[in-house]
Amino acid sequence: RAVWHGCVDGIEARVAYQLDGAALEVRLELVNGSGLTVEEIQFPIAAGLLPIEGGRVVAPSLSRRVIGDPFGKDLMGDHRVAYDHFQKRTYRYPHKMTTAWMDYGSAERGLALECRGMDFSIADFYVYKHIEKKRQPMRRTLELGIGHPRRVEPGGHWTSPPVRIILHEGHKRQIREMGKLTREAQAEVDKC
């Protein structure tokens, strides 16, 4: 178990992280010592993800569960348009997701984010495609993250639910494991 601590413009952040099997479990504690209101916290963010052969984004959404070609046409190809949101897809839990996780990977490997809160707090899972056309050759990367729409007033604090970042050995096995863990977490909620 380890802790990282930082402070910018009066907003203090402390991240606690520990290994939990194949996952890195992280938690953010934010203290707002500034004179401004924080409207949303994005935590964690996995950025700079390069293409994986056969890679796709999977989320247990009530609509559009799979983005089969995240570096291509499914997130607007290589077009940079005035409407940047075409290169971003957001899934809100619990409004549009049955469980709180998202995965980018293939049959052989990948990365998943899983929110382990037990209170059904809103979490916006997102995937965003960055296009760097000025680089030679042009580069495309993905960013996966979770947005927490929480208002933290000056003097207030907020602690994130536990979030797991998982490097895994393929879609089917990992999705099955996350589903099992989610059922176990639901059983714990049902006991209360």
3D structure, described in words:
With 192 residues, this protein is mainly beta. Helices cover 11% and strands 45% of the residues. The protein is built from 1 helix and 13 strands, in the order E-E-E-E-E-E-E-E-E-E-E-E-E-H. The chain has one helix at residues 171-191, and strands at 2-8, 11-20, 23-32, 41-49, 56-58, 66-67, 88-93, 101-105, 110-115, 123-132, 139-148, 157-159, 163-168. Strands 1, 2, 3, 5, 6, 8, 9, 12 and 13 form a 9-stranded antiparallel β-sheet that branches. Strand 10 and strand 11 (139-148) form a beta hairpin. The longest helix is centred in the C-terminal third of the chain and has 21 residues, at 171-191. The radius of gyration is 17 Å and the shape is globular. The mean pLDDT is 85.
